[in-house]
Amino acid sequence: MESNKAQQARFGRQSSLAPPERHEDSRGFDDEVEVLPEGIDPRVRLMYLANEGDSEGIRELLDSGTDVNFKDVDGRTALHVAACQGRTDVVQLLLRRGADVNLEDRWGSTPFADAIFYKNHEVIKLLEEHGAKPPVAPMHVQNAREVPEYEIHPSELDFTKSVNITKGTFCSASWRGIQVAVKLLGEELFTDEDKIKAFTDELALLQKIRHPNVVQFLGAVTQSSPMMIVTEYLPKGDLRAFLKRKGSLKPIIAVKFALDIARGMNYLHEHKPEAIIHRDLEPSNILRDDSGHLKVADFGVSKLLKVAKTVKEDKPVTCQDTSWRYVAPEVFKNEEYDTKVDVFSFALILQEMIEGSPPFSTKQEIEVPKAYVQNERPPFRASAKLYAHGLRELIEECWSQKPFMRPTFAQIIVKLEDIGSQLVYKRQWKLRALQCLNLESMLKLDRSNPSSHSSCSSIR
């Protein structure tokens, strides 16, 4: 009889952990396999039929006594093959007939890991329901001494009363007696090197940050799946939802909020030894705490200026990476950029708080950055008095087409504090004037009322 290797069918989709050359060798095959000769080992035929999705043929082979957990020379089973191909009905059949859901091939890949690699979501759910163990987390360490200090065991997180928070990857949980926010990393993290790098970069950055206007990092789950980032929970939600409910804000409130954002961003930009560029500053990434103050959050695409004064993306930014409505033109054009991209985004947020609508709200999102590149800016439609004391001029400076012309956040804070002081003084002056008018009205009423005079005479 021929060896299993000689009889092995050639499948297009290889093990998720197979070396790159195996995937290269399989190019051009896609989901096809070579035609099997007559008299082939039934166990190899089982693999072939799993690849083809022939449930009836598989059932006949299993009824005749073929081992459902047969492994080929690469240690792969029919369940591995069906998981790769996304054959949900075949996976169900194999599981019902006793297929081991956690068998590993020669490279250590399980059917579950293969289903994740090829993004076969229905198969992923099915294997999870049958006890599939998640693949080893990308940051898993072998030595217990290497486990990071911030590590949280997933058993400490109680999701029984969890609710989704704004974006789909965020939810709430209970941890050690307090409510926390949890950012969940999906199964695609295990096969997407860019996402793994973004996750590790975000963790490295969060450990460095401590400021009242920046969301506090509490810990992370990195040694098991799913991986998570745990931060303080801010029950009042994000600025986007707040603006959607409230519309335009009074200038004194807008300036107060702007100062919160500017102080948080100034801390990031002045961080030593490496400045931190947020690069995704927009209302949904700004959260409100119980006292009504704002905190900058979500550092998934942030950059550390380690050596150079500027950074450049390895590939163009897409609308999945960030909101086009708040992105600086130099980022959209995939040019080198620096901390001033956050200043540009800040200007748009400040104007939105006054206007009550997102920048270029009538344009399609993809058209907005093209307008910025052409030096177009959202129009000032609100009353000029709402932009008093230099507020409009500050916004225009911040969204200058030339990044070096935009002020730093340290300069922005000084200007905002001055504008805020003038608004407070003006408000106090109005209140005093109103009080004087009320007092004068009361005195006039008193003089015109005879009964009040007689009362006064009797008192004397």
Describe this structure in words.
The protein has 17 helices and nine strands. The protein is α+β, with helices and mostly antiparallel strands. The strands form three sheets. The protein has a five-stranded antiparallel β-sheet, with no helix packed on it. A two-stranded antiparallel ribbon has the order 6-9. β4 and β5 (228-232) form a beta hairpin. Mean pLDDT is 83; it is low at 1-7, 28-33 and 454-460.
Please give the structural blueprint:
Blueprint: H1 4-7, H2 20-25, H3 42-52, H4 55-63, H5 78-85, H6 88-96, H7 111-117, H8 121-129, E1 157-158, E2 170-175, E3 178-184, H9 193-206, E4 217-221, E5 228-232, H10 239-246, H11 251-269, E6 275-277, E7 286-288, E8 294-296, E9 303-305, H12 329-332, H13 340-355, H14 368-373, H15 391-398, H16 409-447, H17 450-459
Antiparallel strand pairs: 1-2, 2-3, 3-5, 4-5, 6-9, 7-8
**Which structural class do you get from the secondary structure elements?**
alpha+beta
What letter string, H or E per element, gives the SSE order?
HHHHHHHHEEEHEEHHEEEEHHHHHH
Strand order of the largest sheet: 1-2-3-5-4
| Biggest sheet architecture | 5 strands, antiparallel
Helix content: 40-55%
**Approximate shape:** elongated
- Helix count equals 17
Q: Beta-sheet strand percentage?
A: 5-15%
Mean pLDDT: 83
